[in-house]
Amino acid sequence: MIEEIIFAIGFIILAPFIGALIGGIDRKVTARMQGRVGPPVLQPLYDIFKLFEKEKAVVRNEVNFYIFSYLIFVVFTGALFFSGGDILLVIFALTLAHAFLILGAYAAVSPYSHVGAERELLQLMAVEPMLILAATGFYMATGSFAVKDIALWPEPVVLTIPLIFVGIVYVLTIKLRKSPFDLATTHHAHQELVKGLTTEFAGPTLGMVEIAHLYETVFFLGIVWLFFASMPWVGLAAVIVVYFLEILVDNTTTRVRWQVMLRSAWLVALVAGAINLGVLALL
Q1: Which of 45, 135, 166, 181 is buried most, with the most CB atoms less than 10 Å from its CB?
Q2: How many domains does the chain have?
Q3: How many Å apart are CA 219 and CA 148, to the nearest integer?
Q4: pTM higher than 0.90
Q5: DSSP letters along 207-225, please?
Q6: Measuring CA to CA, how many Å separate 252 from each of 170, 184, 187?
């Protein structure tokens, strides 16, 4: 119990700094790919500090409540995951967090914000089937939904559910808001003026969204690591390779229509998830 609490507190304290470091390296690598020098590695932290120094300004007061709830549930999601909790509860908490983010965008009186909220809802619909299939795959491979039990499994779970791992990597592009699936909002400079989901967020409100993104990045990379948990250093190498591939895809593809995103994500979930689970059921 004490160990679980330590891991949860460790995530809450360290994840924003780790996420910011990952984001800073992301910007550096992206800049190099584009022939630029890029900002300092700690630039994501500087941006967040600057946002919290700005005046509080929201279109409607309830927006702050929704965004704060989004941040709290994202933190809860990651803390539950890294403390070894039930992976189904982790997925449900993450879904609830994004429901609050969508409500916050809808509460802002802006057509761009509303379009962004609708696209975020579509992205949620695209990702959820693969996440549920992944949780099912973890259970069929280890006999438990508990993240702690999955992490302590004597062999890498990826050997049992390799197709589900491929599916998770595919939808990770959506969750990290990377091109070609950065439909709801993006961090690319050429879309800063009209950022869809976060168009009407500013100052501390936008700062909370950015902090939540840092927590989410660490959480999703933690899921990638979980497939290799019995070999921690191999898992770390897999996380680095997967994130580099995400950056590469982000810089070599263009945004697709939401129909393509939704159909492709469901197709990957159907093919990768159903086939892998079907094979496990027959063994």
Answers
A1: 181
A2: 1
A3: 15
A4: yes
A5: HHHHHHHHHHHHHHHHHHH
A6: 15, 19, 15
What is the residue type of 202? Answer: A
3-state class percentages of the chain: helix first, strand second, coil last, to nearest 5: 75, 0, 25
- Say how far apart CA 54 and CA 74 lie, in whole Å: 24
pLDDT tens for the 283 residues of the chain, in order: 788 999 999 999 999 999 999 999 999 999 998 888 888 999 999 999 999 998 877 777 888 899 999 999 999 999 999 999 999 999 999 999 999 999 999 888 788 888 889 999 999 999 999 999 999 999 999 999 999 999 999 999 999 999 999 999 999 999 998 989 888 877 665 544 456 788 888 889 989 999 999 999 999 999 999 999 999 999 999 999 999 999 999 988 888 888 999 999 999 988 888 899 888 888 7
Which two structure tokens, joined as six digits, stand for 8?
């949860």
